[in-house]
Design a protein that fits this description.
This protein has 463 residues and is of the alpha/beta class. 54% of the residues lie in helices and 10% in strands. The structure holds iron/sulfur cluster (SF4). The site of iron/sulfur cluster has 15 residues, from α14.
């Protein structure tokens, strides 16, 4: 997926003004997801679960070298082949070589954010390989030639009516087809693909070091088919997905599902440890696990940002975010959007590349309350903002405003004078006089300042 973050503001404005259906569809879907998440959290002692999950993931991340070595050893014992990819290019290369060595012409894929991150599909298509996205939402987006706009519900920005039109045109379904009819039409295409593909590609929700197990959660059954029908299964997994023990996985499967969809656990959980044991057994003949760094060790080395690597990609922070709800994910310009994107993208891509995402937040804190692994997203946003300010990456008007404010705040005479001028100018005139307020004031009426300053009132003893 191309990186186009810089124009975030322009894209967000365009979606809000020109495509109100997106806001309607995203708001409706995220509110529904979030209501289910809240009910599901209420059924358990969610604070205790979240603290436990935070501790397990933080332990795994701060002992990553040990657990990665353990996971690799167990996977090899299980008969899987382990590959290491330092960056997106290496990850693509590994998959391309596997496909070329095995004469692969057709691939079925499960939903995977890391494959979006490494831009895998265009590379495979460029080599003449046919790809079928098998998650229904991803399949819709593949027909539309669009990237996902949500970690969990990739097509939530599309309405039922739009999907009806698309399927009527591409799959010849009735123009008033109900969701069952549409799903049946997609299933027919995808079943043929499952039976004829030589390679299945998935991500991995978790990788258990103790047993060398790639765990995948889903609701549609497509991942189960992707990992078991084709001759070769390739799991592409970020190195931060490690869990130390199998007993940890039991808790994470439940907590992740509750945070994502409000379910006590996903409908299907696949635990992949290696290829089919004997000829005639179900399962692939080869299992390859590609462990992807692609900037993660840099994030791990960052004093604050490393906490974002606890993310289990549940999407709960997107669902609760009042900013994300206005635009959906495309405005953010890269694969990880919403609150987690705003703190993870600067770490993975570099702060300059990810500007202005750390500022795409109201800092309301709802994302932290929803997050199953207690990533302190509002604090990380502030940290990235501080770094952006120090590195001169913020707009000059904003830097000038803060410098002026600092001058005034440390000079009482200047502060009094500015207060008097401000109160004489009034709301809209103040907005025009202070260009640094321009963006803020464009969509809002500035409050009219009090005619008398707090200091004056205080001096006169008037409450
Ligand atoms: S940051 Fe937390 S809430 Fe957001 S996707 Fe990651 S785990 Fe889920």
């Amino acid at each position: 997926m191309r990186i186009e973050i810089g124009d975030y503001g322009a894209r967000a404005r365009q979606v809000i003004r020109e495509d109100p259906q997106v806001r309607e569809a995203v708001t409706g879907a995220t509110l529904a997801f979030d209501a289910k998440r809240r009910r599901s959290y209420d059924e358990i002692d969610s604070d205790a679960w979240r603290r436990w999950a935070e501790a397990v993931k933080s332990h795994a991340l701060t002992h990553l070298d040990r657990y990665l070595a353990e996971a690799e050893a167990r996977l090899i014992e299980n008969g899987a082949v382990v590959h290491w990819a330092a960056d997106a290019g290496e990850a693509r290369q590994i998959v391309m070589e596997l496909a070329a060595e095995n004469g692969v012409r057709r691939v079925v894929k499960g939903k995977s954010m890391v494959t979006e991150e490494i831009d895998l599909n265009p590379a495979l298509e460029g080599a003449g390989i046919e790809i079928f996205e098998t998650d229904l939402g991803e399949y819709i987006l593949q027909l539309l030639d669009e990237p996902p706009s949500h970690i969990l519900g990739p097509a939530i920005h599309r309405t039922l009516e739009q999907v009806r039109e698309l399927f009527a045109e591409r799959l010849e379904t009735p123009p008033d087809g109900n969701p069952d009819t549409l799903a049946r039409a997609a299933r027919k295409v995808l079943r043929d693909a499952f039976l004829s593909a030589e390679m299945g590609i998935t991500g991995g929700n978790f990788l258990v070091a103790e047993t060398g197990t790639v765990a995948l959660i889903e609701n549609e059954g497509n991942i189960r088919l992707t990992t078991s029908l084709p001759r070769i299964h390739v799991a592409i997994v970020g190195i931060e997905k490690l869990l130390p023990r199998m007993s940890d996985l039991a808790g994470f499967l439940q907590l992740t599902s509750r945070a994502a969809t409000g379910q006590p656990i996903g409908c299907f959980v696949s635990l992949i440890q290696g290829p089919a044991a004997r000829p005639g057994d179900d399962g692939p003949k080869e299992v390859h696990v590609v462990l992807v760094d692609n900037g993660r060790t840099d994030v791990l080395a960052h004093e604050h940002a490393w906490e974002a690597l606890r993310c289990v990609r549940c999407g709960a922070c997107l669902n609760v975010c009042p900013v994300y709800r206005q635009t959906g994910g495309h405005a953010y310009g890269w694969v990880y959007s919403g609150p987690i994107g705003s703190v993870l993208d600067p770490g993975l891509l570099g702060l300059r590349e990810a500007m202005p995402l750390p500022f795409a937040s109201s800092l309301c804190g709802a994302c932290f309350d929803a997050c199953p692994v207690r990533i302190p997203i509002p604090e990380l946003l502030l940290e990235w903002r501080r770094e952006a300010q120090e590195e001169g990456l913020t707009p000059w008007r904003e830097r000038a405003a803060l410098t002026t404010l600092a001058q005034m705040a440390t000079r009482p005479g200047l502060y009094r004078l500015a207060g008097r001028i401000g109160s004489r100018l009034g709301g809209s005139a103040l907005g025009r006089a202070l260009p640094m307020l321009g963006d803020w004031a464009r969509e809002r009426a500035l409050p009219k300042p009090s005619e008398r300053s707090f200091r004056e009132l205080w001096r006169e003893g008037i409450e």
